[in-house]
Amino acid sequence: MRVLHIVGGSSFGGGSFVIVQLAELARQLGWRVDVLCTDHRFQQELRKAGAGIVELDVIWRDIRPIRDFLGMWRLFRFLKRNPYDLVHTHTSKAGFVGRLAAWLAGTPAICHTVHGFAFHEASPRAQVRFYAILERLAARWCHRIFTVSEFHRQWALRLGIGDERKLAAAPNGIPLERVRAESPRDQVRRSLGAEPDDVVLLTIGRLAPQKGVEDLLEAMPLVVGGLHGRRAHLWLPGDGPLRGRLEQLARNLVISDHVRFPGFRADVGSLLAASDIVVLPSLREGLSIALLEAMAVGRPIVATAIGSNREVTGEGEAALLVPPGEARTLARAITRLIASPALASRLAGRAREIYLARYTEQAMKKSYEIQYRALAEDASARCPPRPWQAAAKRGLDVMAAGAGLVVLGPLMLLLAAAVRATSPGPVLFRQWRVGRHGAPFRIFKFRTMFLHAPDVRNSDGSAFTGPRDPRVTPVGRWLRQTSLDELPQLINVLKGEMSLVGPRPDQPDQLRFYTPEEKLRLRVKPGLTGVAQLAGRNSIPWTRRKQLDVEYVRKYSLALDLTILLKTIPYVLLGHGVYGEDRGLSSGAGQ
Predict the structure, then answer these.
(1) Are 17 and 289 in contact (CB under 8 A)?
(2) 430 and 340 both lie in a single domain
(3) I need a labelling partner for 261 at 20 to 30 A (CA). Which of 235, 345, 433, 452 fits?
(4) Do 320 and 192 share a structural domain?
(5) 143 with 182, same domain?
(6) C-alpha–C-alpha distance, residues 299 and 312, integer Å
């Protein structure tokens, strides 16, 4: 499997961490994985996970229709030149552009993760309707949509963004290693100006409008005033477009001495261990990674009562929930936890229990693995040509095979006479082969071996085709060299058992050597010629031939068939790849 995650120009954040985990999952499954992104910090994390980077600047956060269309077209051309088995898009903008490009490119499996809709619970109804229309349109261009919570899945169902089969909840998860403290608690507190008895509030996240940090800053004077002598600190690690504005707001509220902006910090576990309460005042979220981090280490939490927060915390079993955008209510919840250590401890304990039961890295990866495998299986079922393509392919087969039998009829009669005159036995060699969906049929060829010649195989199960094979007659050797022994298969094509182009048909007992992926070659009719014949025919290993056949099935188009037919003519005339190597011989049943 070749997998491409499409993110575009989004900055590194919680959703990016999920994508890094999914890249690790793909590598654990033995798949090749690339990520299209332009954020340098994000690229560094992906390289650590062993993912490849596609540095294609085609998706941007701001909406500019003409530029966005050109970006989509460049992405489409890239996917046509570099086909992937599965394309997985992320974020609203990349999800729209990426899904359209992948759909136009004919990617077998396309999926999208909703890390958060472009609208939220408090959005105006007209805005929700507008973006829901766009999401319903984009849903037509993919095979699965993942939501990071059941809340968002149910919301998408109500809005008509996909159906029960297309929508699947795959909640975020994090490893415990991510929140392991690297430095002692007291050392971290001292480094950020907090004494052992001070109260430390921590908010982790990008300093962006949807995080609601302004509400928390407005709540801080009430929190500070209600501590009766104890000193309070608010740590706001991270960066984002609102940092300058938030620093100015802290000065205006005269709380600069209580607020720290440490910038980007990789030691999330140490900050959590050094804090007393985690406060998450988000106005909207998909499923907050910061919330899961606080739950994993068992910290008391105050969070807004948005849908995914309610779901994750068990409707307030594991945190104090407050309405978003209400600074006074937020301040009261914080001071309540500070004044009630027993309540804080109970909530923290329940939060860790819920995390361990539902939101670990293993749980998230298992959800995606199941869905990825289902997508791959569904993609396999979509591999055969579409009805109009199948009809056109059959029409081409009938016309070409019919014309070939008429034009080449005299030559075939001469060849039949030569076979009969030089070797006793029937003119035609007939043998059971495997057709589409494993259906058996009798293949026709001019006989090239002496009568009752033994069936000799290579150790990998493929037929032996050495240049000095003693079983082959002198006329048969010439027929093989020129590929004229295959002409009677035009009858098989006319009967509908074969096609002009497709995988070469194997014998029934060879199926036991097939891997599940190699069985994809059985989803189309076998052919007289194909990609594997042009790539080396019998001179390349049988396993490689099967791989090339699978690629042909996945990339099928009428244009590809015509290209193969045109390239086959000089290839056959020059006699390339007629004979294979001796790869360890074994004798089978006689012909």
Answers:
(1) yes
(2) no
(3) 345
(4) yes
(5) no
(6) 15
Do 261 and 372 lie in one domain? The reply is no
For the chain, residues with pLDDT lower than 50 are 582-591
Which among 386, 391, 294, 301 is positioned nearest to 337, based on CA atoms? 301
Burial per residue of 489-507, b for 16 or more beta-carbon CB atoms within 10 angstroms, e otherwise: bbebbbeebbbbbbbbbbb
Distance CA 23, CA 35 (A): 8
**DSSP three-state, residue 558:** helix
Whole-model pTM?
A: 0.69
Query: What pLDDT digit, counting tens, does each position of 169-188 carry?
Result: 999 999 999 899 999 999 99
Residue with tokens 């440490």: 262
**Looking at residue 88, what DSSP letter applies?**
E
Last residue of a domain, one of 322, 347, 381: 381
Max CA pair span of the chain: 113
Look at residue 1 in the predicted model and tell me its pLDDT. 82
Closest residue by Cα to residue 469 from 450, 483, 493 = 450
pLDDT, tens only, 461-487 = 667 676 778 889 999 989 988 889 999
Write out the two tokens for 112.
């999208």
Q: Note whether 62 and 87 are within 8 A (CB).
A: no
Q: What is the pLDDT of residue 269?
A: 94
Residues with Cβ within 8 Å of 404's Cβ and at least 6 positions away in sequence, in order, are 487, 490
- Residue that the structure tokens 């290209």 belong to: 563
Question: What domain count does the chain have?
Answer: 3
- What amino acid occupies position 346? R
Rounded Cα distance, 268 and 455, in Å = 67
Residues 371 and 491 in one domain: no
**CA-CA distance, 502 to 524, in Å (whole number)?**
7
Contact criterion met (CB below 8 Å) for 476 and 447:
yes
Consecutive H or E run containing 497: none
H-type alpha helices, 106-252:
125-139, 150-158, 185-191, 213-225, 243-252
Report the distance separating Cα 350 and Cα 320, nearest Å.
12
CB 121 within 8 Å of CB 152: no
Residue type, 508: P
CATH number reported for the structural domain that contains residue 90 in this entry: 3.40.50.2000
Domain of 95, in residue numbers: 2-173+364-381
Q: How many angstroms separate the Cα of 445 from the Cα of each of 246, 389, 415, 462?
A: 80, 28, 11, 18
Tokens of 585: 């011989």
- Tell me the C-alpha distance between 499 and 502, whole Å: 6
The tokens for 195 are 């004494």
244 in Cβ contact with 157 (< 8 Å): no
Encoding tokens for residue 57? 């600047």
Residue that has been written with the tokens 């002009």 in this structure: 500
d(C-alpha 442, C-alpha 377), whole Å: 30
Do 154 and 211 sit in the same domain of this protein? no
Here the tokens at position 109 are: 């499996």
Q: What is the pLDDT of residues 525-547, one digit of tens each?
A: 999 999 888 887 777 888 888 88
Residues 415 and 337 in one domain: no
Say yes or no: 148 and 184 in one domain.
Answer: no
Rounded to 10 degrees, what is the CA torsion of 7, 11, 14, 20? 50
Place of tokens 């995606």: 368
Sequence-ordered alpha helix ranges (H) in 29-169: 40-48, 65-81, 92-104, 125-139, 150-158
The pLDDT value recorded for residue 406 is 95
Beta bridge partners of 181: none
